[in-house]
Each structure stands twice: as C-alpha cells, then as structure tokens.
Amino acid sequence: MLIFIPSVRENMAAGTPYSLDLDAKGRIWISFLEGFVVRMDDIGGAALQQFGSPGKGDWQFRRPMGIVCMVYSGFFSRPQYDIRLKGSMH
Amino acid sequence: MTYGLRGPCTDSSGRIFITDVGNDRIIRINNCIGEGLVTFGERGQEKGQFVEPTAISLTAGGEILINDAGNRRDVKIDDMQGTGWAEYGTQGNEVGQFQGMYGVTQQPNGIADQTLFFPLGIRCDAQGRIYFIDQANKRLVRMNDMDGSGWMEFKF
C-alpha cells in the first residue's frame, strides 16, 4: 500500500519523529515510531509526503528506526525486528 | 564494553563514528574490526561530558555533531579531543530548548509505550545548517549554527 498525502506547509504527519537524513537534493527524510516515513522539501514542510503504515506487510513498518538515504530517491529503514529495503517515494 | 551503539557515520577517510549511549561517550574506529579505537566523553553535564548521546553526524568540514540527549543539548566539536567544544540547548519546549528522548509513544496496537527511545536525528546540510529531531516535543528543528541563530521548526 502506497500512501501519498499532498500537503504543503501543513502538518499532516502526526507522530513521534525518530531519525532523519538528508538526500542529495537537500530533501528531509524522517522516520516515525508509529510506522511511517515522511519526506519534505524543506523545514517548512513543503511538498510533505507520508509513506507507509503500521504492520508487517509490504510498505508497512512495525517501528521504523534509522533512516539513511541511499540514492536521491531511495531510503533504507530498519524496523524493530528485521531489516527491509523499501523502494522510493516516487 | 560498549552499550547501546548508535550511528554510525563515516568521514572522508572512512573512519567510523558511533555514539556509545550507555557509556556516555563517542567512539571512532578506523574500520569494522575496531582498529584505531578512540573514545571521547564521560558521564556528566560539563564540557567533555555527555549523558546518553544518541546521534552523531559530521559536517562537510569534518566537525563532529552530537545529540547529547540526556543533557538536552547539541554539541559540536572539531575532533576526538573535544577541541572547539560548542553546545546549544536547555530543557524545555521553547525555542532553543529540547525535551530529548523521554517521549511517550503509541504502539501500533494503541498501547502507550513509555520505553525510552533514542532519537537518531542530527544532520548537517550543504550550507552547514544543522537539523535535528527534538523527539518529545515532536518537532524537527533547523538552526544555522551552534548559537541557535536562524532557529526554524516544523511540528508533527
């Protein structure tokens, strides 16, 4: 399941931020303990997109922790009990 | 013995930097078998001291950024001797204040979870601005330097 929430400078990602990284384009990627990841273009929340949901299936996270941008559009996140590589937010 | 390693990040020479949360220090090693081990820090609130440092990152110039979560501050040092120590932050929820790691979170099943979590968020962008996660205040903060100038935040 892929969730895109079009939002510009609005807070639509209510949760507890845990880890962050910046990609080559300067965009901000943040993992949340509630089981999702957010990407936004700047500190004002421009082009905020939320990705993922709690769970164990595809595109779901139990508790995403570390997040590292591998390439400009990809990310790597470590849920609590295993390691998964998930695709991009395009 | 280490306890609760967080990070890592690497410098241009490939050396690895880690926070050793439970031992209130940071570690640098030359490779994944631990050669060239250098540590810095001890428990406390003064210069050269940390309380459960949870995140570490490097600036483009090789300076070391540390989220000293237990002391609710960010620290920047030039090297593993602690040269150029600069710190910013106090406890609270206003500008220039952090709540660190003591957040109560909600598990996917809805049960409140008061386990201590350790935010892993501190990064420096190409302009040298510092981003970090102030977890219990549920916000992302950016500041231009360790004096707190240019403080901007985004609340979640």
Topology record:
The complex is a heterodimer of chains A (90) and B (156).
Chain A lengths: L16 E6 L5 E5 L3 E5 L8 E3 L1 E2 L5 E2 L5 E2 L5 E4 L6 E5 L2
Parallel strand pairs in A: 5-6
Antiparallel strand pairs in A: 1-2, 2-3, 3-4, 7-8, 8-9
Chain B lengths: L4 E6 L5 E5 L4 E5 L8 E3 L1 E2 L5 E2 L2 E6 L5 E5 L4 E5 L8 E3 L1 E2 L5 E2 L6 E2 L5 E2 L8 E3 L5 E5 L4 E5 L8 E4 L1
Parallel strand pairs in B: 5-6, 11-12
Antiparallel strand pairs in B: 1-2, 2-3, 3-4, 7-8, 8-9, 9-10, 13-14, 15-16, 16-17, 17-18
Number of distinct beta strands of chain B: 18
Low-confidence stretches of chain A: 1-10, 78-90
- Count of runs of 4 or more consecutive helical residues of chain B: 0
> Strands of the biggest beta sheet of chain B: in what spatial order?
1-2-3-4
Assess the beta-strand content of chain A as a share of residues.
35-45%
Radius of gyration of chain A: 12 Å
Quick one: overall form of chain B?
globular
CATH topology of chain B: Neuraminidase
Radius of gyration of chain B: 15 Å
Features:
heterodimer, A: 90 residues, mainly beta, four-stranded antiparallel sheet, three-stranded antiparallel sheet, 9 strands, globular, disordered N terminus, disordered C terminus, B: 156 residues, Neuraminidase, 18 strands, 0% helix, 43% strand
Characterization of this structure:
The complex is a heterodimer of chains A (90) and B (156). Helices cover 0% and strands 38% of the residues of chain A. Chain A is built from no helices and nine strands. Chain A has a four-stranded antiparallel β-sheet with strand order 1-2-3-4, with no helix packed on it. A three-stranded antiparallel β-sheet of chain A has the order 7-8-9, with no helix packed on it. In chain A, strands 5-6 form a two-stranded parallel ribbon. Chain A is globular and about 30 Å long. Chain A starts with 16 loop residues before the first strand and ends with a strand. Residues 1-10 and 78-90 of chain A have low confidence and may be disordered. Chain B has 156 residues and is an all-beta fold. Chain B has a single domain, classed as TolB, C-terminal domain (Neuraminidase). Chain B has strands spanning 5-10, 16-20, 25-29, 38-40, 42-43, 49-50, 53-58, 64-68, 73-77, 86-88, 90-91, 97-98, 105-106, 112-113, 122-124, 130-134, 139-143, 152-155. Chain B has a four-stranded antiparallel β-sheet, with no helix packed on it. Chain B has a four-stranded antiparallel β-sheet with strand order 7-8-9-10, with no helix packed on it. The chains are: A mainly beta (90), B mainly beta (156). The A-B interface holds A 11, 13-22, 26, 28, 30, 32-35, 38, 40, 43-45, 54-55, 62-63, 65-66 and B 103, 105-106, 108, 117, 119-123, 125-126, 131-133, 135, 138-140, 142, 152-156.
